[in-house]
Amino acid sequence: MSTGRAAFLLLAVAIAILTGAAVASAAASSGPVTVEIHIRYSHFEPSTVAVPVGRPVTFVLVNDDPIDHEWIVGDAALHERHRTGTEARHDARPTEVTIDAGSTRETTVTFDAAGSLQYICHLPGHEPYGMVGTLEIRGS
């Protein structure tokens, strides 16, 4: 095989590999997003999470504590309502979840706008103790 032909074949293989990597990268950026949040010692780990706008995000909420917690995502007005609310359990909305002691719950949410929200446990004493996290929703 001539040097020119070998160089051409090598170039063609390199282009194919790079094109495949670009396609795989694009597929990964549009595929499902999963975020795992652990609850330990009445704190969220991690306490800051970034997710993409407009894509479904499945949150896996793992309560490693021996007591119940809740994960409520929203703006300041929503959290103010929950501080004085009367709901004993949260199971009807994907952004409001009760996680029993020692259990794992999953919820899927699509955020339509970029911005910053908080996730908080509003059970008595938990928020002042530090059970607060920040959710950054980032545009593409």
Could you explain the architecture of this structure?
This protein is α+β, with helices and mostly antiparallel strands. It has two domains: 1-30; 32-138, Sandwich (Immunoglobulin-like). It is 29% helix and 39% strand. It contains three helices and nine strands. It has a five-stranded mixed β-sheet with strand order 3-9-8-5-6, with helices on one face. It has a four-stranded mixed β-sheet with strand order 2-1-4-7, with no helix packed on it.
CATH superfamily of the largest domain: Cupredoxins -  blue copper proteins
Task: Strand order, main sheet: write it out.
Answer: 3-9-8-5-6
What's the main sheet like? 5 strands, mixed
Q: Give the helix tally.
A: 3
The low-confidence runs, each spanning 5 or more residues with pLDDT under 50, are 6-28
Morphology: globular
Number of beta-strand segments:
9
SS class: alpha+beta
Distance between the termini: 47 Å
CATH topology term of the largest domain: Immunoglobulin-like
Number of domains: 2
Q: What is the level 1 CATH name of the largest domain?
A: Mainly Beta
Percent of sequence in beta strands:
35-45%
Query: What is the residue-mean pLDDT, rounded to a whole number?
Result: 83
What share of the residues lie within helices?
25-40%
Radius of gyration, rounded?
22 Å
**Quaternary class:** single chain
Q: Architecture of the largest domain, CATH level 2?
A: Sandwich
Order of helices and strands: HEEEEEHEEEHE
